[in-house]
Amino acid sequence: MTKKSIMCFISLVILVIAGPLTFAQVNQKTESNSLKFKPVPLSAFKHCDVGNPSIPGTVKISENGFDLTAGGADIWGNKDEFNFVYVERTGDFDFVCRVQSLAPANLYTKAGLMAREDLTAGCRHVYFQVFSDNSLRNHNNGGYEFQYRSTKDSAMKAIYPKTSEGSPEFPVEYPNTWIRLQRINNEFTGYYCTDGKTWKPYTTFTLELPPKIYLGLAVTAHNTYHFASVMFRNIGELKH
Questions:
Q1: DSSP annotation string for 193-210
Q2: Rounded distance, CA 229 to CA 105, Å?
Q3: Which of 33, 35, 56, 140 is the most buried (most CB within 10 A)?
């Protein structure tokens, strides 16, 4: 085989190997670009306090989003106390928002996206939430956490980052703190990002909730004597 023939053969092999990789990269880019943000009309949301907190929550429409104040002992344990702005949703969803700010009443003040079976204090739910900063909390040195209650009136549990040492894997960076909760059948996935586009999965958790649930923005002060305040912006869904 001549030198020229050998070079042609090598080039052909490279093209055969690289071809599928290039195609996969194009597909991946196309899939990412196909996620279109669609705002959810703010008028579609309802509001209530869950669990009868001693300080009632308030909701104000502001700058194409919601400003919330919330009391409440916590979203944890066997029952919850929090302020909830929600829509009723059936089937799969891919819900997102940006948390512009979170003024805490406690180290464990929480705000985030919740999919809830009903509006009772001890119901089953998943909750992908943020804290006010990246201080060390239990097994978490970042600002994001995925929590859930898998059995009615039972204790909640949390899914933490892989490590609580070193640089946070999922840090909050207000006002660029984006949060996303996706449902596909009974799989719930929380995503994190700082630009509303480059999403990184936090975790996926399986919970058999009914098709129709209450989906929305949940805030608790983790303090029965003081309220927390949060600004939610860019509230909508990603369409595939």
A1: ESSSSS-EEEEEEE----
A2: 8
A3: 140
